[in-house]
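Example record for the data management plan.
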Amino acid sequence: MEKERCELSVLILTYHPSWKALEQTLRSVLLQRDVRMQIVIADDGSPDPLTAEIEGFMAAHGISDYSLVHSAVNRGTVWNLSSGVDACRGEYIKTISPGDMLYGYDCLRRWLDFTRQGGYAATLSDAVYYRTQADGEIALLSVRAHPQSLPAIRQGGKTLQDDYLLCDDMGIGAAVLATRAVYREYLPQIRDRLMYAEDNLWRLLVFDGGRLGWFDERAVLYEYGTAVSTNGSSEWDRKVRKDWLAANEIMLSRLHPAYR
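Corresponding structural encoding:
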């Protein structure tokens, strides 16, 4: 029997996930009201992708519209995202990682409506940064907008391009909701050239003049210090920098030869 049409696919990207972190992310998704959604969990070659735990959780909550995508080998975040997108049926996709959570009960409904009504290819939101302490308690750190120059986002056009590209004032993957179409258009352009920093996709979208909107609400609880871009490792900084330069090369290749 054909599965019910869904508006949105929640795509959870994992690599060596802890069940505690993944479970809290899943619970935040299930709390969302009035959204016809599909859940996709794409794992990037973890020895234990927690399949038994996930299937048990879904069964216990009566969730049948979900898909598990597991790579046999570790290929990096960009390829994992691409594999997950291939399994998504929703017109829109909300990506998220274990440990990150949706903020409140109806933020996804409001965020989706805002994105659709504005005709945006992608929208960004505020993120509430937090860190899990040694005793397991959550410590809220700050509320941040991405990009952080709100006037530029609200004005759009060239001002947004200057801010996003020249100032490197980029969004974070946890605070993005986008159409499936834009992922399918841009991922083939980067998946063989970038490995980890999938956020560069939005730099390319802005460079091409794509419609990027601002959902001016706190929509995501973001676990700071665990992601590639925030864990403080100099090795990861080098890899992220390499991806940033590769995205620059893609943009430069689109310019007229006189401007290269």
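Summary line stored alongside the record: The beta strands are 8-14, 37-43, 66-70, 92-96, 101-102, 122-132, 138-145, 176-179, 212-223.
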